[in-house]
Amino acid sequence: MEIKSTDSDSFRLVYENCYSVLIRICYHVVYNMDIAEDLVQEAFERFYLKNMTFPSEDEAKYWLIKVVRNLAFNHLRRGRRETQMVEKVRLRASGGTNTRDAQVDLDENETRREVRKAVSELPENLRMVIILKEYGDLDYKAIGKILGISESNVKVRVHRARKKLEESLAGDEAYVY
Amino acid sequence: MCIDEALLSSYFDGELKEPYKSQTEEHLAHCAACRARYERLRTISEELRSDGPDEAELNRNRDVIFSRLEKKFFAEGGRKPGFWRKKVEFGLGSMITAAAGLVIVFIGGFVLFGTSPEQTSDIIPSYTIQADSQNVRFVSSDEPRGLDGYSLEEILSYLDSRGYNVDISIKGLQPVE
Ligand SMILES: [Zn+2]
Q: What does the alpha-carbon distance between residue A106 and residue A89 come to, in Å, rounded to a whole number?
């Protein structure tokens, strides 16, 4: 079905079908729900403002994932000062109910911290591929489309990302052989 | 001969085509070492997937964000133009310079005002809030530091992004020489 981004039915359909996957992908890049929500909202705003027609729902979804991925990595790259400013306004705006993430962080068990550390330390090209694979539930073909690389390149990167994750997650045991 | 690691990773993702798929399955059935490698792949994948908020938490603001977008783009009377980009961004600097005096900004239910000396970027040294306004909580602050840290653009962009219908009027009075 053709998707026109400014058509309200199309927009709603795409939103319903893509929100979950977008927020999950975005969260696992920025590791913060508030920021992930802002970025996903921005992605949908761009989707509308782009005023584009997509040949299929999947194409619209890939486009949105591409945008969210760029927004999320730009967010990470952006200077700390700006981020902190936004955070201050945000905390005030929501009446200080956002302590949850901090609490979750505190409660997280060792494995989770290690997983995040391992994923965060992956080079960006490997990191995105594994995030799209594990949190986006996408096949190699879709990931290739989103990242503008070949399927076989996706295959190689997924494998390399897993190798690196295996090494970091093996932790101290790795040194014992 | 044991299974190539990249091949095993593809097999794990269900991306391996015949005859490699059957060959891999056959080998796995007979080779404990490869089964162990396959298990490691599964463990890593599970560790990654079990990290992060659950679906309910991920989708906590799904409807809220949709309402914002709907209001912004599909509300009656067509879409509200991005007021900041279209109307204010280019004009504000010169407007304030010209005013070069007391600047009062009305945003929805609350009022920001202050003197505007040399720097046009820093025009809100103090603020006050209408007590009866629904909007008060939004930018209100319990801290004495108030909104000093934010430029008008940051505040307005933020409010706009949260779906507030922002009416802004800036009144330049006589210079306070
Ligand atoms: Zn083997």
A: 23
